[in-house]
Amino acid sequence: MDKVTGMDGRAYPWGAKNIDTDVIIPAHWLKTISREGLGRGAFETVRAQDGNIFDDERYSGSPILIAGDNFGCGSSREHAAWALLDLGIKAVIAPSFSDIFSGNAFKNGILTVVLPQEQVDRLLEVAQTDEISIDLENQTVTTPFQDRFPFEIDPFRKHCLLNGLDEIGLTLERDTAIAGYEGNRAETMPWLAKGTEVAA
Amino acid sequence: MSHTPRTLYEKIWDAHVVETRDDGTSLIYIDRHLVHEVTSPQAFEALRMSGRKVRRPELTLAVPDHNLPTTARVDAAGNRLPIADPESAQQLAALERNAPEFGIHYIDATARQQGIVHVVGPEQGFSLPGATIVCGDSHTACHGGMGALAFGIGTSEVEHVLATQTLQLKRSKSMEVRVDGDLGPGVTAKDVILHIIGVIGAAGGTGYVIEYRGSVFENMSIEERLTVCNMSIEGGARAGLVAPDETTFAYLKGRPYAPNGADWDAAVAWWRSLATDPGAQFDRSVVIDAADIQPTVTWGTSPEDVVPIGGVVPAPESFADPSKRIAAQKSLDYMGLTPGMAMQDVPIENIFIGSCTNSRIEDLRAAAAILKGRKKAANVRWAIAVPGSGLVKEQAEAEGLDRIFIDAGFEWREPGCSACLAMNPDKVPAGERCASTSNRNFVGRQGPGARTHLVSPAMAAAAAVAGHLADVRDFTA
What we know:
The structure holds two protein chains of two kinds.
Chain A lengths: L5 E4 L1 E3 L7 H4 L19 H4 L16 E3 L12 H9 L3 E4 L4 H9 L3 E4 L2 H10 L5 E4 L4 E3 L5 E3 L4 H9 L3 H6 L2 H14 L12
Parallel strand pairs in A: 2-3, 3-4, 4-5
Antiparallel strand pairs in A: 1-6, 6-7, 7-8
Chain B lengths: L7 H7 L2 E4 L5 E4 L2 E4 L5 H10 L9 E3 L23 H16 L3 E2 L10 H7 L8 E4 L13 E4 L2 H10 L1 E4 L3 E8 L8 H12 L7 E6 L1 H4 L3 H9 L8 E3 L4 H7 L9 H11 L11 E6 L6 E3 L7 E3 L13 H14 L14 E4 L7 H11 L10 E4 L4 H9 L2 H7 L3 E2 L20 E4 L14 E4 L2 H10 L11
Parallel strand pairs in B: 3-4, 3-6, 4-5, 6-7, 9-10, 9-12, 10-11, 15-16, 15-18, 16-17, 18-19
Antiparallel strand pairs in B: 1-2, 2-8, 13-14
Helix pairs in contact in B: 2-5, 6-8, 12-15
C-alpha cells in the first residue's frame, strides 16, 4: 500500500447527511470482478441532476469530499471506496462515518476525518473558494484562514497509513499466535472447528 | 475465573481474542465465513496475485445469491439455462471457479440448498451460537438471531479472513435494546425493528453492538429474531444479537453442519453459559414498551423515516434538527409525497416479498394467510414472492403457499436477493412505488427512481390486495 501522510487541495463542499453506499455506487456497478473503473458510476444518481456538485467546474478533480453525518451508511460494498478513489477522492471529512465504510476506506488508503458539525460547517464555507489541508502526522485540518482543527484517529490505522503497511502481511506474521489459538480451540471446542467438515 | 459480570457480546468477544495489542486492537478469530459472488472476486484475485492460501477452507461456505436471476435456472429436461447478462454470468463463473480452486465448499446456483447467504447459514446449521460470523455483506448482522456475533465486512477484510481466519478489530460499545410486554395484533418482528430504528435513528447504533433483550425477543421464533437482527445495520450497528436459548437449540438440532453426538452436548453446555450476567453493564440502554409498537411503514428514503400505518406523511418543519428538515424535504420530493397525506392513501404499483430480512417460511406463511382467497388489486402491476432458499421454496410448495401467491396474481420465483437491491433483472421502474419486505428504502435502491416503502410480509400482502398501503388488521378481523 502507498504511504499516506495527508492531503492538501480543494474539496467538494457537499455536506449532505446519511449518504449511503447505494448513492456512492449503485448496485448495478457491482457486477465487476475488478477494483478499477468504478469512478464512472460514482454518485450516478446525484450526477444525473443539473448543477450537481461533482460536475461543478470549481470543484472538479478535488481530492477531498466534505459530507454530513453518517457518511457511507448501508451496504458493506468496498466498491464505494474504490469508486471514490477512481474519482480522485482520497480523503473524506464528516461529523461521523459508518463503521464498515471507515474500515473499507482505511484499507484503501482513504483518510476519513471526523470533526464536529460546527467545524465541518466552517470547512464547507472555506471550501467554496479555498484549499483545505489535512496533516495525518499532526492530526490536524487547517485552512489558509488560520483555522486549525485537531482530529482523532486510531493509532494503529495511523501507523499503517503513514508507513504504507499491508494489514494481511502484518497478521500473517502472527501465525504462531493464531496456530496456538487454533490448537487450544481444537481441544476445548472441537465442534466449532469442523465447519463444513461435520460428519453426520 | 473472572467474576466481573459480562454481557453476551463481551463473552463471545473474549472467547475469540487471539491476542490484544497495547493500542487496544485485538486479533479476533473468525469461526464462520460466508462468501457470495459480488464481494469476493477481488479478494480471491488478490490471494492469487500474492500467492497466499486460504488458511481454513472448511470454515468458509460459498453460495451465489445477489446477482443471480430469480427466473428458472434449469429447463424442462433439467439442463442449466445460461444467464443473459454477460457481466452477471462472469461474476457467477468467477465464484464457481474460485471456490474449488481454494478448497471451499460451494453450493451451486441450481442446488436445492442454494439461497440468500443469510438464509442458508442458519438453515444449514453453519451459523452457530457464540460463533464469530462474517460475510462481505452488511446484513450479516442477521445471524445474531442465532446468538452469534455476526457482522458485515468489506472485500479487503474478506481477503484477510480467507488468508488468516482472523480480523484486526477494536471492541465496540454495547447497547441494550429492551422490549417487554405483549405485541398487539398484526405487529410482527419487522414492525418491532422498524420501530426501534425510528427510536434510535439510522446512525444511533454506530460504534455499538446491540443486544435485543426482553420478553418480546424471548418469545420470538428464530426466524423472527433473524429479521430483527438483520436490520441492526439500518440502525447503524454493525451487529445485533439475541441470547441463545431453548428455541435456538431446538432450531439447530439435526441441521447438516450443526454439531452432533457428544459434540452437541458440549456445544449446548457452552451456549447456555453465554447469556448476559445479571449486573452486567451496557454503555447505552434503550427501553421500549411493546404496546407502543404499531404495524409500521416507511415514508422517506432512510430506514429511520418510519410512521405507524394509521399515521400521516410528516411535515419537514416537524423535525427539530435543521439538517433533518432538509433531508426530509428531499425525501418527500423523491418519494412524491405531500405532508399530511394518510399513509393508507399511498397507492402501490409493485409488491416485493423476499430478501434476507423476510423470505423465510414464516414470512411466506404470514403473507399467504392474507392473500388466501384474495387477488392483487388492478393497479398493482407487478408482485413477486422470492423465497429465501430452495429449501424454503420446497417447504412453501409442500404447504401449497405457491398456489396461494400465484392465484393472488403474484409471480413465484427462484431464491435470491432479487429486488431488494435490484442487481439482477428484478427492478422497480422509476417513479413507481413498491411495498417491500426488504431492508433499505434508499434512493435508487430498488432501481433508478424507484420509491420504496418498507413493510412486513403481512402488510405487503395487504397492500397488494388493497392497491395502496393498508392496515393488516383490517384483513384479519
